[in-house]
Amino acid sequence: MPTPTKGPRLGGSPTHERIMLNNLSQQLFEHKRITTTLTKAKRMRPVAERLITFAKKGDLNARRRVLRSIGNKTVVHELFTVIAPAMAERPGGYTRITKIGNRKGDNAPMAVIELVMEPMGAKAAVAEATAVTEAAAPAAEKAAPVAAAAPVETTTEATSTDLPAGAAAALENGEAPEGFEIKGNAGSMKYHVPGSRWYSNTQAEIWFDTKESAEAAGYAPAGGVAAQTISE
Question: What quaternary structure, including any partners, is listed in this protein's UniProt entry (predicted)?
Answer without folding.
Answer: Part of the 50S ribosomal subunit. Contacts protein L32.
